Amino acid sequence: MYSYITILSGSCSCYLVTRRQERPINYCFLRDLSSPKSIYVTNFHENKEKLIRRLYKFYNRTVFENKLPAYMDISWNKRLCKTAARTGFRENNGQRYAIIQLSDKVCDSAERLRDTMIHEMCHAACWVIDGNGEYAHHQLWEQYCGKAAENHPDLPLITVLHSWEYHYPVIYVCPKCPYRVGRWTDSLDTKRLWCGYCYSQLVLVT
C-alpha cells in the first residue's frame, strides 16, 4: 500500500510517495492468530505470555467494557491434562476476583489460547461483574459468549466442551492392529498392559 503526502512549496505542490502498511477497517488481530505469518503462531511458546496479556486486555475492552480488573491472575498449570483451563472464584474483604489456570499441554497453539481465554473470561465475568459464583455454563455465561461472538465474528463458536485432539508426546502402538494410545509421559508398563483389541504387546513410540 502507498500513501501520498502533499508538500506545499510556494504556489507549487508535489506528492511524496511513501510505503505504509495499511490494515482493513474491519481488521481484528484475532484473525492473525490463524495465520502462519504471525509471530504468535510461528513462535508460540516464546510469545505466549505476551499473547495472554494482549488477549486479556483486548477482550476486557471489547466484550466486558473494562469491567474486569486491569490485571487478573492467569497462570499455567501442568497438571491439567484433559481440560484446556479452569477458573477459580475468590473473595477478599468484599472484593470479588478470579484466577484462571491454563493447561500448557492442551493450549499449545495461538488459536487454542485465543478460544480458551474468552471461554474462561466469560466465567470470570459472571462472578467478578455479576456476583454469580456458580461455575456452570448457565444462561449468564451464554449471554457473555453471545456478546463475544457478536462483537468478534472472527471467533469460532464458543462451546461448552472443546473437541481438540491432544498432541501427546508419547504414543504406544500395537504392532498387529491400528490401536494406539497417547500419554503425556512414558508411564505405561508395556509388560503388563496389552492391546485391548488383539491382546498384543504394546510398543512405545516417542
Could you estimate the helical fraction of the residues in percent? 25-40%
H-E string: EEHHHEEEHHEEE
Question: What's the pLDDT, averaged over the residues?
Answer: 80
Percent of residues in beta strands? 15-25%
Radius of gyration: 24 Å
Assign the structural class, choosing from mainly alpha, mainly beta, alpha/beta, alpha+beta, or little secondary structure: alpha+beta
Number of DSSP E strands: 8
Assembly of the depicted chains: single chain
Task: Give the low-confidence spans.
Answer: 1-26
Order of strands in the sheet with the most strands?
3-5-4
Count the DSSP helices: 5
Biggest sheet features: 3 strands, mixed
Shape: elongated
Distance between the termini: 47 Å
